[in-house]
């Protein structure tokens, strides 16, 4: 799969096949070039200067914690809204017919990233259209179908807060 360097489908298939008793399945792939995020898990990473990601923590969360807050909800009502400075937290959730990826930014700069969706364990990756995440704010991506996991990589900070939503990359292109 291009777009993440050498992230291999075999590595992702191994992650998807974690034992049923495992507490979490999400984690780094290909030596930190990207992170695989599974439904119902909150993954916190810290971008390193070399472009890789450093895993901080993975923990189970309710899948609905990926949803945007309800109108009138207070920030302290969200137990996942504790993203430390310099980190990015990712939560994959949604219902049986849709998927939401919540990206919480603890970065002082806006950032862009690439994502690939896996609709089922062992399925072929689909490039995803994603938008710039603003500094110190959550961002949300939604897809109108269920997704088993998402791989996020190529996190690049930007010097402006212009939100860019580039067209979906085609498989085989960077």
Give a brief rundown of this model.
The chain has about 170 residues and is mainly beta. The protein has one helix and ten strands; from the N terminus they run αββββββββββ. The chain has one domain.
Description:
This protein is mainly beta and 174 residues long. 5% of the residues lie in helices and 36% in strands. The strands form two sheets. The chain has a five-stranded antiparallel beta sheet, covered by helices on one side. A five-stranded antiparallel beta sheet has the order 4-3-5-6-9, with no helix packed on it. A hairpin with a 7-residue loop joins strand 7 (110-118) and strand 8. It starts with 8 loop residues before the first helix and ends in a 16-residue tail after the last strand. The model is unreliable at 4-21 (pLDDT under 50).
Structure keywords:
10 strands, five-stranded antiparallel beta sheet, 1 helix, mainly beta
Helices and strands in order, then pairings?
Blueprint (H helix, E strand, L loop, with lengths): L8 H8 L10 E3 L4 E5 L2 E7 L5 E8 L27 E6 L5 E7 L4 E9 L7 E2 L10 E6 L5 E10 L16
Antiparallel strand pairs: 1-2, 2-10, 3-4, 3-5, 5-6, 6-9, 7-8, 7-10
């Amino acid at each position: 799969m291009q777009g993440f360097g050498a992230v291999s489908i075999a590595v992702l298939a191994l992650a998807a096949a974690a034992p049923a008793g495992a507490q979490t399945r999400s984690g780094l792939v290909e030596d930190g070039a990207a992170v695989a995020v599974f439904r119902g898990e909150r993954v916190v990473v810290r971008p390193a200067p070399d472009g890789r990601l450093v895993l901080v923590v993975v923990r189970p969360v309710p899948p609905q914690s990926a949803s945007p807050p309800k109108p009138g909800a207070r920030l302290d009502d969200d137990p996942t809204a504790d993203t430390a400075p310099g980190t990015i937290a990712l939560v994959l959730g949604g219902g049986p017919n849709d998927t939401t990826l919540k990206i919480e930014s603890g970065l002082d700069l806006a950032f862009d990233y690439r994502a690939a969706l896996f609709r089922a364990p062992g399925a072929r990756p689909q490039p995803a259209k994603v938008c710039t995440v603003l500094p110190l704010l959550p961002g949300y991506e939604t897809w109108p179908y269920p997704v088993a996991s998402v791989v996020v990589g190529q996190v690049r900070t930007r010097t402006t807060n212009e939100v860019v939503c580039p067209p979906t990359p085609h498989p085989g292109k960077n």
